[in-house]
Fold this protein.
Amino acid sequence: MAIRTIIENGDPILRKTAKEVEVVDERIKVLVEDMIETLHKYNGVGLAAPQVGILKRVIVIDTYDGSDVLVLINPKIIKTKGEQTVEEGCLSFPNQYAKVVRPKEVIVEALNEKGEKIRVEGKELLAQALMHEIDHLNGILFVDLMIPGTMEIVEPNNQD
């Protein structure tokens, strides 16, 4: 396992559409392990493969609620419901936060790290994270969706 470099705002790879994973092989499993390790190193909630320079449809999410890290390969949004205004940040936009309107509930189908088809129902934070990371796979960034005038830059030394 290895910590991957996070691609930051301005890199054109963040605007590209990631490609479907054809087969969940050892390379994808290593990518997933590295992404989880990277996510935890930077205390993120979610990470998409394009954020580590890999244009594959792979995301990992950890809401730190005691459940396992969620691994989704080729995720597809099946249904959304409701609306919530949330503050979002992104590992590719260090120390920047803005308000975004996201669905309150979402249903996603994907493959897990074993290549098995799964269905995930997310509410609130999980719904937000699912939408944010799936957007990354489509070259959409949270700043594209932010409510104008809500961007806040927090200096790292001011954080707890």
The radius of gyration is 15 Å. Helices lie at 26-41, 125-137, 142-145. The CA atoms of residues 63 and 85 lie 18 Å apart. The first strand starts at residue 46 and ends at 48.
